[in-house]
Write a structure and sequence with these properties.
With 127 residues, the chain is mostly helical. The chain contains 7 helices and 3 strands. It has a 3-stranded antiparallel β-sheet.
Amino acid sequence: MPAVDLISRPSAGPVPAAYLGLLAREWEATMPAVLIRSRFLGLLYVLHDRADEIGHVRPRDGGDVVQDLARGACLSTEDAVRYLAAAMAAGVVVRQGTDVYALRPAAVPDWSAAVDHITATRERTAQ
């Protein structure tokens, strides 16, 4: 999903707008290539797209939030879970309950923690 298309459309509120600004203008430029190639970046854009005005991502239509995010990012549910955990390790997303995630636009991402998580979980599932 190209950042240019998302920047030109209005966001749902100030938190998603701040998150998108950081994602498209700063975070993406500093993100290791392994995260971009793994579709991790695409999941971050889908999180922005699904967030309400205060930056919370909740289940839509009574469904499962992880499955909704997986469909939106063209990922398997297992990969969506891995990438969400990596986003939490990086500090750009936090869990706000059983089925609610929240964007963290003020975060200084720890991309190495995200890479470590994705690499470790990929190796564990390959065994």
